[in-house]
């Protein structure tokens, strides 16, 4: 009988975002089915049809659950190395019912594939059972602060259960839900990665505390991502590669660090080394179909 520990090790070993050894051996698909978001990060600018950029929160177009399932079918047929199906936006997946419809449909048809979701954690406790029922086994939560004072500097507002929060109330609501959600997810047996955006001059001193808290809540991995200056933080500088490595070294004392992140689009697919967006995949598929028609 396979134990939970063995199951988690297998998922991690074949998950390109959780294992550096797997990132160029196994592929993943991000399905952009979740446009709505329930918080506003001051560094976030979600823009569609931005083909020349590779960053979180952008996609060529939004898919509905039926289109998402069709995309998985076509890519599974063409690429045996696909092991992970992820939903990472372009908004927050847990704020979109399409996320759960999509995961449930894929899990019924491809139970061998690992389902993974990236979230800000605001609704994690509220929708954790729904995630588990839909077949999700791995989870990424973006946490950029541990104190309300810091969170106020990073988030403009939070929308939770029909109420809009700003300032200190927003910060306290988000932080409380994030850490409560992580603890609950770990207890449910999910593999948990914490993403943290390194914002120079803002949350530098707090990131090691995030690492410590994440480790003590049972998270498996931490991914420190350099700020991409956008939106309200467009005038801030992106941290250097050396600065990011130094921060990872500090945080590595508390929790294992991911070092191969590509800050992928919400419609990325393939291995991390060969990353392709959705429109490029569609183009390749059409070319292949036309070629088959010609030779036949």
SSE diagram, text form:
Blueprint: H1 4-13, E1 27-30, E2 39-41, H2 65-78, E3 82-87, H3 97-109, E4 114-119, H4 124-133, E5 136-142, H5 148-154, E6 155-160, E7 163-166, H6 167-187, E8 191-198, H7 207-216, E9 221-226, H8 241-251, E10 257-258, E11 269-270, H9 278-295
Parallel strand pairs: 1-3, 3-4, 4-5, 5-8, 8-9, 9-10
Antiparallel strand pairs: 1-11, 2-6, 6-7
The major beta sheet can be summarized as: 8 strands, mixed
The level-1 CATH class: Alpha Beta
Beta-strand content bin: 15-25%
Q: How much helical structure, as a percent, in the residues?
A: 25-40%
- Architecture, according to CATH? Alpha-Beta Barrel
Q: Average pLDDT across residues? A: 83
**Distance linking N and C termini:** 49 Å
**CATH homolog superfamily:** Aldolase class I
Order of helices and strands: HEEHEHEHEHEEHEHEHEEH
Residue ranges: pLDDT <50 for 5 or more in a row? 49-55, 279-296
Rg estimate, integer Å: 19 Å
Total beta strands? 11
Count of individual helical segments:
9
């Amino acid at each position: 009988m396979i134990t939970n520990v063995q199951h988690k090790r297998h998922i991690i070993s074949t998950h390109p975002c959780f294992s550096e050894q797997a990132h160029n051996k196994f592929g993943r698909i991000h399905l952009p089915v979740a446009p709505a978001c329930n918080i506003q990060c001051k560094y976030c600018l979600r823009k569609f049809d931005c083909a020349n950029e590779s960053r979180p929160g952008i996609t060529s177009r939004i898919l509905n659950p039926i289109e998402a399932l069709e995309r998985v079918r076509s890519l599974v047929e063409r690429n045996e190395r696909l092991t992970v199906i992820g939903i990472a936006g372009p908004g927050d997946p847990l704020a979109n019912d399409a996320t759960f419809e999509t995961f449930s449909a894929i899990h019924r048809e491809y139970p061998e594939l690992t389902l993974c979701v990236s979230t800000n954690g605001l609704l994690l406790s509220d929708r954790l059972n729904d995630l588990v029922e839909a077949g999700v086994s791995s989870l990424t939560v973006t946490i950029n602060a541990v104190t309300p004072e810091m969170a106020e500097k990073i988030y403009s507002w939070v929308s939770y259960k029909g109420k809009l929060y700003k300032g200190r109330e927003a910060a306290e609501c988000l932080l409380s839900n994030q850490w409560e959600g992580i603890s609950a997810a770990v207890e449910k047996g999910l593999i948990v990665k914490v993403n943290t955006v390194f914002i120079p001059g803002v949350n530098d001193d707090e990131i090691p505390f995030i690492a410590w808290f994440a480790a003590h809540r049972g998270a498996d991995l931490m991914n420190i991502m350099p700020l991409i200056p956008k939106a309200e933080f467009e005038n801030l500088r992106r941290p250097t590669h050396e600065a990011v490595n130094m921060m990872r070294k500090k945080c590595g004392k508390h929790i294992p660090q991911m070092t191969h992140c590509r800050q992928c689009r919400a419609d990325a697919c393939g291995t991390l080394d060969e990353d392709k967006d959705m429109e490029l995949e569609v183009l390749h598929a059409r070319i292949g179909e036309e070629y088959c028609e010609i030779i036949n």
